[in-house]
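[09:14] KT: can someone run the structure on this one? pasting the chain below
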Amino acid sequence: MNNNAGIVYEDGKFNKRGEPTEAALKVFSEKLGQYDSRFKRSDDATKTPEAYSASLASQYEHVASLDFTSERKTMSTVVKGLVKPGANSLLLKGAPERVIDKCSTYKKQDGGLATFSSDEKKRLIT
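[09:31] RB: done, C-alpha cells below
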C-alpha cells in the first residue's frame, strides 16, 4: 500500500511498471503470497499479477499518501484498520536516516518496545 510501482504481463512476459526497486518489492510480496494460507490465487498470475497485493490492500482503508520526493526522501501512507479496527496507522519508507529520525521507539528482538535515544539514532545513521 506504500508502493506506486506495479507488475504487468504483456507480450508474453512480466514487466515492471515504475521504479525498479519498488517493482522488485512488489514481485517479492507476490512470491510471499504463496506461503500465506489465508490467500488462495483464484486465477492465472498472467491475468492478475498483483493478486496478493490487491488482496492485502482490500483489507484496509487507504486514507492518504505523500509520495516520495527528493526533498523528503520518504513516502508515507496512512491506512485505517491495520493494527486496530478504525484506527489510523502510518506506513513510512525511505532513506534510513530520514526514517530513523522520525522514530521515537523501535521493536526489540523479543517483541518489546524500546525508546530511541539521540545517541542510538546518531550511531545508526553514521
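[09:33] KT: thanks! DSSP finds four helices and seven strands in the chain.
[09:34] RB: yep, looked fine to me
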